[in-house]
Amino acid sequence: MSELLSSHTTLRVGGPAGHFYRVGSEAEIIEAIEGAGDHQILILGSGSNVLISDTGFPGVVIQIANNKVAAEVDACSGATLTIGAGENWDEFVKTTIDRGWAGLETLSGIPGTVGAAPIQNIGAYGHELSEFVTRVRTYDIANKKLRTFTNDECQFKYRDSIFKSNPGKYVILEVQFNLRRGVMTTPIQYEELAKELGISVGEKADVIKTRQAVLKIRARKGMLLNESDPDTFSAGSFFTNPIVAEHQIPDGAPKFPQENGTFKTSAAWLIEHSGIKKGQRLNGAGHGEGPPDRDRVHQRLHRGQGRRDRRAAARTSTAGRRRGDCLLQHRDRSVGTLLRERARWKREPFGVTRRSRPSHAQCQRGEVRLDQARRKGRRNRRAHLPQRRFRGAPQRRGRRLRCAGAARGGGGAAARSERELARLDVHGL
Q: Which of 57, 231, 243, 359 is most exposed by smallest CB count within 10 Å?
């Protein structure tokens, strides 16, 4: 069976891979790339900021898992660390802090691997990766040769780099960092972080406490991945703050000077002060402090669901879920499968019975109109059948038709639909 990419992405979506290789050394990475031939290649780390179709990826997926670690420590210059591209980013940050090296604490909790970090030039709370990178070792796919980039050659910009500008050209093998020894941060510039630490903007803080504060803020916003909590399954934070001229920044908005004379301001501040408040929703989309509604998360992101099925499931109403007459998702089956398993019974004159699926409109709303089934049952003189069930084929007794779908106080179609739903092993939302 082909490897499902849903188990290798932070959103938990993605169909099968045509070919899947997990490589753990530089030589294996190069061998896998060259062995792909004319097949399309997808380089994968931890799968954050990646959205893969339910149809999968037909080419070659190469997951980089080399976690090489080399360190040179000097009392004056600090620590020079060479880290393999497959190392988990947050685990690397934690290790540096535990060893007494400062600098990366504000970048705690960012999902991904070390190899992916230079591509985006990740940053948070006043610091960017480019401040600490000294060189990046890569493999040039087009020219089939190794190449090492210095910090300047990486062309780091705000959430940009030469690797991002040339997608599919370079595969990052390892990254070298230079960190200072110390237990205190540089002056904290972000008000939110300073408030969490209980200090004023511009003051320094303990490195360990700063990491804990950053993780707490991210967890509160639903941005900290937790394998035991599906509500945290996300791509992380991928928006960018605007960089504009100083006169374009509204009064009171935070601003951070850039090297080219422009200023970066806060997109979150602009959204908040534009009149859009936390919790406000428009056509299903919302702006909030925390993660979205738990039910919708399970419905949208549950493994193995197609886009159409996720849309149908997301439209189920809260009232419908309480009644138990809406289309709920099963742990292992899609909404479409449930519809077929739960097709309601329509009874025609003279006892002729046939199966049919609910209408398209009913599917979109996520509800089966049981009241319609009850009215049809009454029209067919089946609304007051005895409260008993008969197995096998329908039997004619006098002028009444008794069948297995007979209801308690309602039409047979309605009762069968309710009983079938109750028997399904529906995933608790």
A: 359
Distance of CA 352 to the CA centre of its chain: 48
**DSSP strand E in 314-383: where?**
345-347, 353-355
Question: Is 69-232 in the same CATH topology as 5-64?
Answer: no
Greatest distance between any 2 Cα atoms in the chain: 101
| DSSP letter, residue 350 | G
Q: Both tokens of residue 275?
A: 């009149």
Cβ neighbours around 236 below 10 Å, total: 17
Rg (CA), the chain: 29
Cα–Cα distance for residue pair 187/205, rounded to 1 Å = 8
pTM, to two decimals: 0.64
Q: At a CB cut-off of 8 Å and minimum separation 6, what does 109 contact?
A: 90, 214, 215, 218, 219, 223, 224
**Domains of the chain, residue spans:** 5-64, 69-232, 243-287, 295-429
3-class SS at 208?
Answer: helix
For domain 5-64, say whether CATH 3.30.43.10 is its number. Answer: yes
Range picked from 114-118, 125-129, 322-326 for highest mean pLDDT = 114-118
